[in-house]
Amino acid sequence: MIDGYLLAPFPWYGLDEAFTGPRWLMQVGTAADGAVEHGALGHGDEPSIRTESGSEKDRFAAVVTVAAHPGRRTADGTGVLEATSVSSAAWLAGAGLLNVTWPGQIDHSLRDDWLDQQTETAWVLADDMEGDDWSELSLPVDGEPTPFRYRESEYGWVLAGSTPAGVHLGAFGRGMSAYGLAFSAIKNIEHYS
Known about the structure:
alpha+beta; two-stranded antiparallel ribbon
């Protein structure tokens, strides 16, 4: 699983060294040509899907790193790939939070419909980062104060911003306060395996 992370042509970000809890690999996303485009790293408890029995004790933060790309042609020259942006990181973080969320009042058979609806909502919110649904938050990235856009919901929180290193960061979590987080480039990804 670590191979996808090692193939990325950009630095991975996670919580800085002040976080001393468990760290784990999540998933990388690739383009059609196999190039690594984004991925996530987990910190804290591996989240379990919220159900009627509850997983309210989950304390985790996941950090999504997205390669910053302008709009560009596909590797085979047959199409154009969309540019990545802070909105890309916000949408991936929002979708990531939804994947570990299941409102207790929803029947299992309706979860797919709920997930589709909420994923569409996450996309709309990510497309309007300057809207009233988002607030501003400054957090350290490699020791430098960096502006982020932040929002909370009943399922957890999501934030997104860009780094001076040329990648976009998204993060989502539950049970850990976003206000106390700090991010840094990962020196050794194998600490997450």
